[in-house]
Specification:
The chain has 265 residues and is α+β, with helices and mostly antiparallel strands. It has helices at 2-42, 71-74, 77-88, 97-110, 145-160, 165-181, 191-200, 206-217, 224-236; strands at residues 65-68, 114-116, 123-128, 134-144, 240-243, 261-264. It has two domains: 1-55; 66-264, no CATH class. The longest helix has 41 residues, at 2-42. It starts with a helix and ends with a strand.
Length: 265
């Protein structure tokens, strides 16, 4: 019995010693951690964990080079913007659309077509010329075709790009035909539309363009945005005085288009 008692006492002594040793070591480690933290804190480090340098995963894409027309040199200011919005931004640079687009807007840039303000009152003027002959003329207000065309396409663009690409491109030309159909070149009321039709006469998508025009004339609601955009353009446009005795300027039609140049986009 005594031997068993001594064995139990020995085991208790070992267990107590092991417990005291572990407690001492844990306390020592805590003290060391506190000292390390205080040391880093004194050095101005707010966190024990060293910050890791963050590296951005974003890679800036390289610019691509495309063959584009020199719009800044050739087109009026509003059509320079339109060329960027329609052709460049959407990368609609395939042929024949690209060239037909540029040919049309180059023609419009070089000639001042106008649209008569339907709300303008006519002012009849009777004046004697150098031969003492009375000449009668009419003055009224007009809009710039180019300004209205630019605004109408810009206001329509979000709706246009919602169509399939081939249809969207055709709608751009449809808007050109609609607005040029309302236009005149001095007293020549049918000339602007005839010129645009001549540019498009061999265009591969011409049949589809006429079809869209027929749908618009039939009040197809899918194209209501065009009329709304045109009305908004009219509301914001400025008017210019015009007298029908004004001699027309020489019509400028380019026989050759400029060469395309490589540009970074």
């Amino acid at each position: 019995m005594l031997s068993i008692f001594f064995v139990i006492c020995a085991l208790l002594v070992v267990l107590v010693g092991y417990y005291l040793k572990n407690t001492f070591m844990n306390n020592a480690n805590k003290v060391q951690n506190i000292e390390d933290f205080e040391a880093k804190k004194d050095e101005g480090v707010a966190n024990v964990i060293e910050p890791v340098e963050q590296k951005s995963l974003y890679i800036k894409p390289e610019k691509m080079r495309y063959w584009l027309y020199p719009s800044v040199r050739d087109l009026s200011f509003e059509f320079q913007i339109l060329y960027d919005l329609v052709v460049v931004k959407n990368l609609w640079i395939d042929e024949p659309f690209h060239t037909k687009f540029y040919e049309i807007f180059l023609l419009l840039s070089k000639n001042n077509f106008m649209i008569r303000n339907p709300n303008s009152s006519d002012l009849i003027l009777n004046m004697r010329d150098e031969n003492d002959i009375v000449r009668t003329s009419t003055s009224y207000e007009v809009f710039s075709t180019n300004e209205l065309l630019y605004a109408t396409i810009e206001y329509s663009l979000d709706s246009i790009v919602g169509f399939y690409e081939s249809d969207a491109k055709n709608i751009v030309f449809v808007i050109v035909l609609i607005i040029c159909g309302k236009s005149q070149y001095f007293n020549q009321k049918e000339l602007p539309l005839a010129l645009i039709q001549d540019v498009l006469k061999e265009y591969s998508e011409l049949e589809n363009i006429w079809y869209i025009l027929e749908l618009i004339e039939a009040k197809d609601r899918r194209f209501d945005f065009i009329e709304k955009a045109y009305e908004l353009a009219i509301q914001k446009a400025i008017t210019y005085p015009y007298n029908d005795s004004t001699s027309p300027l020489h019509l400028q039609i380019s026989s050759n288009l400029p060469k395309k140049v490589l540009k970074n986009i």
